[in-house]
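Shape is hard to put into words, and the shape of a protein is harder than most. The fold becomes a row of whole numbers, each drawn from a learned catalogue of backbone shapes. The outcome of that step, for a single protein, is printed below.
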Amino acid sequence: MTTLPPSLSPSRSQTTCASLLQELQIIWDEIGESDGERDKMLLELEQECLNIYRRKVEMTRKCKADLQNSLAQFESEIAKIVSSLGEHSFSFSRGKGTLKQQISYIRPVLEELRSKTKQRVKEFTETQSQIVKICAEIAGNGQSMMSSDPQVDERDLTVKKLGELKSHLQELQNEKIIRLQKVDSHISMIHELSVVMSFDFLKTVSGIHSSLIDPANGQSKSISNDTLAKLTGVVNSLQQEKQKRLQKLQCLGSTLIELWDLLDTPPDERKRFEHVSSLISSSVDEVLRQGSLGLDIIEQIELQVQSLNVLKASKMKELVLKRQNELEEIYRGVHIDVNSDAARQILINLIESDNVDLSNLLSSMDDQIAKAKQEALSRKDILDKVDKWKHASEEEKWLDDYEKDENRYSAGRGVHKNLKRAEKARILVSKLPSIVEHLTAKLKAWELEKGIPFLYDKASLLDMLEEYTVLRQAREDERRRSREQKRLQEQFAAEQEALFGSRPKKPLAQTNAMVGTPTSRRVSTPSGKHGVSNLKERRETGRVNNVIPVNFVALPKDDPMSRGN
């Protein structure tokens, strides 16, 4: 009977093997197997058992190596994650115990760090996606860049890096807001200009970018540099067109008003185009009414101007003569003499000859009217002083007549009014020399500046003033002689009364009749003509009257002195 090999120790497994060997011995005995064959088979069994042990040992060693490798990888991954997250304050120790215990300790830590990394990567991805999206919108290629997700560098997932990205994103978001405001402002301006000029707003804006009218599939309005440049260009173009149309309408409106004035167009007809005439004094920014600068409005005004120009041509003769009337009225108003009949005949001959452009003729007459108004304005100050002089002269004439009226103090109707007027007249007459002096100075300055004499209804106003001064001086001399003569007569009468005891009856009246006091003499003013000849006649009359003795008195027939003689 074969014994068990020494390697099969009596353990549980060895006991099992021993039992199996005993059973095998019994079978061999029954078979009659030889000892050599039995030993050979036992050696094979022993070798197979050793091989099994070796494989198990190798497997166990490999498992240990795998556990050690896993532990090292976990530690390396933890260090890498801590570095990428920037968790420098993170501390880790694998602890003590078997490999499996150390792995079971480190695994939850690693899972937590992996979760944190995943969350951080998600934040980076979202932030970078928004940055890429806004950059794409600004660049104008949003759809192509939004199709691919941004690549996140997991080597740097620090909070600092994330903060920098979020700060950059905030700047881009602010830039987007500003650009959207610009886009909305430009669109609003385009809408306003389109309304004023009757443009197709939708067609104009959609031609720039379709998203500006109807954003589709959540697409926002385009804020790209190209879109902003196109919007700015369209706004500038529309503003220039608005300026151009407004200037054209203002020009047409001014022409329309001139034609209305020329043709005496009634207010009801003018009211139809009130919306155009109101634009003449408006600035570009003030024109906001819908359709006020539309092409249809401009065409309507152009047709109206053409129609009025045709009517103007047919009424040009009437208009030219009307201008001539206006010119004559201006000259008459400032006492400038014009040959109206000759001027009208010349104009009629020009119109009927068809050799002159009536529009140019009318324009020339407008220039003459403007020149006449300027001339009238230059004469206004002098004419105002002439009116003052005329009024003072008329009051002087009235005062002379009033003072010669012996019954002026008699009780009657209107006496107190005449007394007040006489008082005012004396004050005004006392200023006459000053008025004449100032007027003469003004006249001389005007004539020196213009180089021509100042004519007042064909007569030289300066000559009229000189004539007036001479006549007034002559009149003052006559007044002084009259007062002296009256004084001598009264003195003579007093002497006669002292000698004869009686006073001559009405000596003054008779003396005045004999002496011929110049009651009819009048001072020459701008209303009088032929003043110089009157002055000569009155001087001769004065010399004749002076032949009569100043002490002549007619005595009554019953005077004692005459009887004594």
The mean pLDDT is 77. The two ends are 238 Å apart (CA to CA).
